[in-house]
Specification:
Shape: globular
CATH superfamily of the largest domain: FAD/NAD(P)-binding domain
Strand content: 25-35%
Radius of gyration: 21 Å
Oligomer: single chain
Bound molecules: flavin-adenine dinucleotide
Structural class: alpha/beta
Largest sheet: 8 strands, mixed
Length: 374
C-alpha cells in the first residue's frame, strides 16, 4: 500500500518523537509536553499493548529490600546506594502524584524480606542500614516482624521476616492504562503496532522508519529512545542488556493469611498478594545466560523452581491451581546506573531501571526529557 498525499502531508512530521510505550516512554512524552505545550509529540510503540516490561511486571512499588541494599552497599558503596534509593523514592512520589493512587491501584501493606538460615546474618546489619537511610526517610525503615511471620503459614525454612512499612504495590495494568489515558488527554499521538526498525539522521531531522507495508518514515528534529531491554534489536552498543523475568499467578485462595510484597534472596525471588491470589516471580539467577534474552517464552527450569517455592515455602501443604504464567524483558545497565545520555545531538536514550522501573521510571523520564531539550 502506498502512502497517500494526506498521510504524507500531515501525519508523519512531528516536533518530538518518543520510541517505546513503556512506563518511561509514556512519562518521557508527558515530561516533554510539560516543557513544550505547543509541540506535536508522537509516540511509537511496537506492540498492540506495551511489549517489554511495564505491563508484564510484578507491580512492587519498592526502593530495595534489606538484603538487596546490603548487597548493593558492599558492591557499590554508600554514596551510590543512597543516591539510588533516593531516586527510587522520589520517582515513586512523582508517579503517584501524576496519576493518583486509585488510578494505579496503589496499596500499602508493607514489604517484607524473608530470611532463611543462610540470610540471618543480615539482621546484624539492620541498625547500620537504618542509620544510613535515616536522613532520607527521617525514621527507621526496617524492623523484624514476628507477628506477621507467626500468622503467615510460611514453611519452616523461613526463620525471620523484616518489614518495610513504606513499601507498596500497584496494579500494573491499571497503571499503564492511566498513563496512556493521560498522554492521550495531553495531546500526545500514540501509535501502537509501530515497530521502529531504523533511525537515520539527515540534515536537521531524524528519520524514524516503521516496519510494515507502508514503510512509513516519521520525521522530527529530536527523538527519545525508550526501548529498554529490547534496544539491541534497534541500536548497537548502548550498554543495555536484556534480562527476562518470569511470573506465575495462582487462582484466588480463600483466607490467604498474608498481604504485601515479599522479597527473597536479594530480590531474586519475589511474591505478593493480588487480592486473594499469589503472584510469584524471579529465579533468573538459576539460568542467567539463558535468561539474557528478548524471547518472551517460559522455561521449565524457572517455572519449576517457582512452583517448588510456592508449594514448599509460601503455601505449604495446599493444593493450588496456577492460572496465569508469562514473561517480560527488563533492561539491565552496568552498576545499576540507568542510561540517560545523548546518542547524538538529536537522539536521547532513556532506560535501564534494573528491575525497578515502577519507582525509578518517573525520574528517568524527567531526566531524558530535560536532556533531549537542552
Ligand atoms: C517479570 C518482571 C517483573 C518486574 N517486577 C517489577 C516490580 O515489581 N517493580 C518494579 O519497579 N519493576 C519491576 N520490573 C521492572 C519494570 O517493569 C521495568 O523497570 C520498567 O517497566 C521499565 O520500563 P521501560 O519503559 O524502560 O521499559 P519497557 O516497559 O520494556 O518499555 C519499552 C517499550 O519499548 C517498546 N519497543 C521496543 N523496541 C521498539 C521498537 N523498535 N519500536 C517501537 N517500540 C519498541 C517495547 O514494546 C516496550 O513496550 C519487572 C520486570 C519484569 C520483566
Amino acid at each position: 500500500m502506498q502512502l497517500s498525499f494526506w498521510e504524507h502531508d500531515a501525519m508523519l512530521d512531528a516536533d518530538l518523537i518518543v520510541i517505546g510505550g513503556g512506563i518511561i516512554g509514556l512519562q518521557t512524552a508527558l515530561e516533554l509536553r510539560e516543557r513544550r505545550p505547543q509541540d506535536r509529540i508522537v509516540l511509537l510503540e511496537r506492540g498492540l499493548l506495551p511489549s517489554g516490561a511495564s505491563s508484564r511486571n510484578a507491580g512492587f512499588a519498592c526502593f530495595g529490600s534489606l538484603t538487596e541494599i546490603l548487597s548493593d552497599l558492599d558492591a557499590l558503596g554508600d554514596a551510590a546506594v543512597l543516591t539510588m534509593v533516593e531516586r527510587r523514592w522520589r520517582g515513586l512520589s512523582r508517579l503517584r502524584q501524576r496519576l493518583g493512587d486509585d488510578e494505579i491501584g496503589y496499596e500499602t501493606f508493607g514489604g517484607f524480606d524473608l530470611l532463611f538460615d543462610s540470610h540471618l546474618e543480615a539482621l546484624q546489619r539492620l541498625d547500620e542500614v537504618n542509620r544510613k537511610l535515616q536522613p532520607l526517610f527521617g525514621r527507621a525503615v526496617f524492623s523484624v516482624d514476628t507477628g506477621t511471620l507467626a500468622a503467615s503459614g510460611f514453611g519452616p525454612r523461613v526463620k525471620a521476616l523484616v518489614k518495610n512499612p513504606l513499601e507498596g504495590q500497584v496494579h500494573s495494568g491499571k497503571l499503564m492504562r492511566a498513563l496512556a489515558k493521560l498522554a492521550a488527554a495531553r495531546g500526545i499521538e500514540i501509535h501502537t503496532g509501530a515497530q521502529v526498525d531504523a533511525l537515520e539522521e539527515n540534515g536537521g531531522e531524524v528519520r524514524v522508519r516503521v516496519k510494515g507495508e507502508r514503510n512509513a518514515v516519521f520525521r522530527a528534529p529530536r527523538v527519545a529512545v525508550c526501548t529498554n531491554g529490547i534496544t539491541g534489536e534497534l541500536l548497537c552498543d548502548t550498554g543495555i542488556v536484556p534480562a527476562r523475568g518470569q511470573i506465575l499467578v495462582t487462582e484466588p485462595i480463600a483466607g490467604l493469611p498474608w498481604q504485601g510484597t515479599y522479597h527473597l534472596d536479594q530480590g531474586f525471588y519475589y511474591f505478593r498478594n493480588v487480592g486473594e491470589r499469589v503472584l510469584l516471580g524471579g529465579g533468573r539467577h538459576l539460568a542467567l545466560d539463558a535468561e539474557a534474552t528478548t524471547d518472551m517464552a517460559l522455561s521449565d527450569t524457572i517455572q519449576g523452581a517457582l512452583e517448588r517455592l510456592l508449594h514448599d515455602t509460601i503455601l505449604p501443604g495446599r493444593e493450588v491451581r496456577i492460572e496465569h504464567r508469562w514473561s517480560g524483558v527488563m533492561g539491565f545497565a552496568a552498576d545499576k546506573q540507568p542510561i540517560v545520555r545523548m546518542l547524538s545531538g538529536r537522539v536521547a536514550l532513556g532506560f535501564g531501571c534494573n528491575g525497578m522501573g515502577v519507582a525509578l521510571g518517573a525520574e528517568i523520564a524527567a531526566q531524558t526529557a530535560e536532556l533531549l531539550l537542552a
